[in-house]
Structures are given as C-alpha cells and as structure tokens.
Amino acid sequence: MNEYVDKIKKIASDMGEVRIMEVCGGHTNTIMQYGIRDILPNNIKLISGPGCPVCVTSQYDIDCMIELALQGIPVATYGDMINVPGTKTSLRDAQAKGADVKMMYSIDQMLDDKDRVFFAVGFETTTPMTARAYKNGIKVFNAHKVIPPAMKILTSEMKIGGFIDPGHVSTIIGSEIWDNLDIPVPQVISGFKPEALIRATYLLLEMIKKGENKVINDYHEVVFPKGNPIAVKQIKETMKPMDAEWRGIGVIPNSGLAARDEALDARIVYKELFKDIKSTENPDCRCGEIVRGMVEPKECKLFGKECNPQNPQGACMVSESEGACAIAFKYGKSLSE
Amino acid sequence: MCLAIPGKITEIKKDKQATVDFGGVKRSVDTTFIEDPAVGEWVLIHVGCAIQKVEEAAAKETYRLLYEIRKEDLENELKESDE
CB distance B4–A171 less than 8 Å? Predict the structure, then answer.
C-alpha cells in the first residue's frame, strides 16, 4: 500500500487540485473504512458519486411502491429499500399497517409468486436477476439505473478529473462499455481492496498528468472486455432503455430500464393508481447534493441529529454499506476529512 | 448492493441451480448466467446468483479480504441467501 501512497505524493506534488469520483458504494465503504482520504495529499480529493442504488431511487418511484402496497397489492424488494422514507411514509411503515411487503435477498424467493410486484432497484450488477423475474412472468416496477449515462452528465456538469469505475457493475457490462463512453477524463476499473483503490488513484493521476483519457481495467480477475455475455443478452431480451429520474440529478436520458413486455411493466399495469401521486422531499435533506458529490454529509443540518440510521430522514442515511451518510455516520467522520 | 462474494461450486442440481460453499457455509445458488458451471469451480455470487467464474487464488484472496473488512456484510449476505 505504501508504495503507491508514496508514488501519489510524488506525482501530486506539482499538480493542482484533482477531483476523482468513485461511483460505487462498495468503493466508498472501503475508502472510508481505511481512511484513504486521510492519507492522500490535500490537493487530491476523492468524491463519492451516485453509487448507492437506494439513494438515487426517486421519491416518486418509492411513493408509487408504497401506494401499491397500501392498495393491497403484494410487493417485494431488496433489503434496504423498505426503510427509505417516501413523501408520507415508508414501505416498512406500510407493512406495519398490514400491507404485504416482502423483503428478499434473492429473486428466487419470489419467482413462484406471480401476484406479487417486484420493486427492482440496483445498478447493472443487480439487473440480470430482474431479467430472470421477467422470464418467469413476474410484474416488475423497474427502478434500475444504468451508470454510464449518469457519469457522462456528471462529467459535463462538475469538475471531475477522473473516475474510479465500479467493479462488479463492470463484471456484468464489461470493460469495453467504458472505452466507448466518450468522456474527456481517464477511468480505472478497480476492485474493492484498499490497495486496489490507492493504485487506481495513482493510475488516474498518472493519466491526468499525461493528458490521457484512457480506460485501465485494473480488476481483470472478474472484469472482461465483454462482461458476462449471458447476463447482458438476457437483460437485452427482457428490457429496453428508458429515461429515468435520479434523486438529486433529475431525468437522465436512457439511464433506466423498462420491460419489453408491457404486461409485466407495473408502471403501465397500475398507472391508474399512480396518477394522483405528488412527491416531495424533506426540504432540509441534502441527499440530492450528496449523491452528486457536491456537499458532504456533515454539511447537512439533519445529519446525526434528526437523521440517523435508526430514523433516516433521507435515502443516503439508509444503506449502511453504500449510503454516503450512513457510512459517514458509521465511521464517525466526514467523507472528506 | 453491488457486493459479490466468491464461493466454490460443490454440486450441480437441476434448473441451473447449484450448491456453493462459502468458507464452510453451503448455499443454493442460481447459475443461469454462467457458461458450463462445474463442480470445483469458483464463482462470484451476487444476491443469490453467480455472475462470473473466478480463479481459485483470486477467489480465496477476495474471500479473506471480505472476511477481514466486511465481516458484517458477508455474514448478512450468507444469512440472507439461506432464507
């Protein structure tokens, strides 16, 4: 680890401020746990981007699912999602009021349950499992997000010097996707070990210094140029791109997915139930800016006070493994300190 | 949510299901997305599905690291896939 820390110090000594963004909550977790931000020179900033699927799910999508559950339609979703506060309540509160909300750990837990609607969230790592749901005739409220279009938007709006590309997302979609992203900054696909993230930071600085915009795959153990072709094929067979709303970012063209078979698209099947939904967020919650890497959790006046993991006011405080606020709370310090 | 854990295939069952050993804990895993999975091979598992084959040495190293730094998440994931 020290070898690359020394190399970073050396190469960064005559560079200005460089902002490097990681877009994977798993990376954020390692960076925080090992205090990697603390050991980098002051001019090298690691910023957390929209790497937490629960955090970027729009308030409207959450409200739609809560409405479905409250209307008596059985729903299922992955763990953290049920604790995210919607405009008025959460799926967990709906469950306490008698709604049928199933928390699952694997799609296999509902493949025989055709009456239940699957609230699908997650990035490309989690999308193939939803293809299996569609193939088994399950209706899905699809809130999946596709990462590359979001990175393109962030690059054009913010001063980002380079990206640490997500590891297991790349396992599915492959490294070639990043080559074709056409953004004016370098990228390194990294694994999750602390030394891998430090090395990725160095490789980015080296490219930034040389003015190169290449993609380096530094997680070649499980990331191949074409990714997982079987998974990619099944995703394409069952889903098509759609414009999707991200919390804090807004609508990004082609950054979401919808069922090819409209009979399995819960947004269409239950559209009458959703027509009166008016979503609003707590005006003091700064999740939107946090997922863009614009402010740190500690800059939010709710952080650690009204908003804590037991009583999250916003999505970023929910996922202890990926949410920027929950991670900052867990490790007891700011994400940039 | 994008955490993936390596495990070793110990049994191939019907309908693309397999038994995978995670450091002594055995779980049923789907292998729809794996080409020709075989007993003795290591795979990376995410929410109950294998997403990629992985070399034994890299798998063991990743598992060791996960156990070291993300013990809680690892235990949750394994508890979860049991249900």
Answer: yes
Question: Mind listing the pLDDT tens digit for each residue in A116-157?
Answer: 999 999 999 999 999 999 999 999 999 999 999 999 988 887
Question: For residue A29, is it within any domain?
Answer: no
A residues 161-190 closer than 8 Å to B (CB): 166-169, 171-172
| Residue B61, domain member (yes or no) | yes
Q: Write down the pTM of the prediction.
A: 0.91
CATH number for B47: 2.30.30.140
Tell me the chain B residues in contact with residue A129 when contact means C-beta distances shorter than 8 Å: 46-49
Cα–Cα separations (whole angstroms), residue A75 to A59, A68, A99, B34:
17, 8, 9, 29
Burial class (CB in 10 A: 0-12, 13-18, 19+), B23: middle
d(CA A167, CA A148): 13
ipTM of this complex prediction, to 2 decimal places = 0.88
B29 is in which domain, residue-wise?
Answer: 5-77
In a domain? residue A318? no
- Beta strands per DSSP E along A9-85: 18-22, 44-48, 75-78
Q: What digits encode the pLDDT tens for the residues A260-270?
A: 999 999 999 99
* Number of other CB atoms surrounding residue A251 within 10 Å: 11
Q: Three-class SS of residue A23?
A: coil
Question: B15 to chain A: which residues are within 8 Å by CB?
Answer: none
